[in-house]
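Section 5.1 Outputs to date
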Amino acid sequence: MFATYLIGLREGLEATLVVSILVAFLVKSQRRDRLPQVWAGVGLAVALSVLFGWLIEYTSTSLLSRSEDRELFEAITSVAAVVFVTWMIFWMRRAARTIAGELRGKLTEALAVGSLAVAGMAFLAVIREGLETALIFYSAAQGAAGDSGPLLALIGGIVTAVVLGVLLYASALRINLSKFFTWTGALLILVAAGILKYGVHDFQEAGVLPGLNDLAFDITSVLDPTTWYAALLAGMFNVTPAPTVLETIAWVAYAVPVLLLFLRPARRKPVPTATTTTVTERGADTGAEAEAASTPQRA
């Protein structure tokens, strides 16, 4: 459940920061009359994200009758989720410094067009995070059919992100967002490695990949699957005591190089802004502060 909580927290905070930048810009620009359009766009994005998540689940449980088809569908969604997670983590690392400026520029253009453009701007700013969350959650929660724990954990992560975003906006909380996104990014890479491992297992069960019975190792006597810590490792990173050879290769081949690439020091010019910030409606450079803070700082 920690994995789905982390997904909700990370994706939710990214979406919350985007909305905070849009709201702060409108407030500072004396355009509070456009705030209802922003919230309408956000609401529509959330609704479609929930619908997308339901559609994935419905396809797996109701539309696909053969177990092999369900395994193949889950395998494909797992690989897609890993692609989205990887792209999202590295995109945030690269684009965080310019995202606020781009949002302000697009919102200025939308204000000149009209209400629908403002709503569409807010919708597009949030829908990506929502669709990613639905897909990643489905892949991370596989194997927990009938268990409401992962869904509650996801909702808890999103609620935590919204609370943090509100406190940041109200200047009631200061948080080092660079460290937050660095640590959560590293953990999400391990979660994605587990999702990829699960996807490989599904491909094997669907008969697409061989080696379903070829175990890389079996440490069941040491890591008892019935213990709480084994369940925790399996739920967080899909670390199991008896994985197949292909599962193990997939986990290591993804986790090791991606972690090294993500954690390596980034070459960049010094930025004259603090690494700890708040999202607030005061000051002329609200968005710039938020984007600087959300960029992973390297030693």
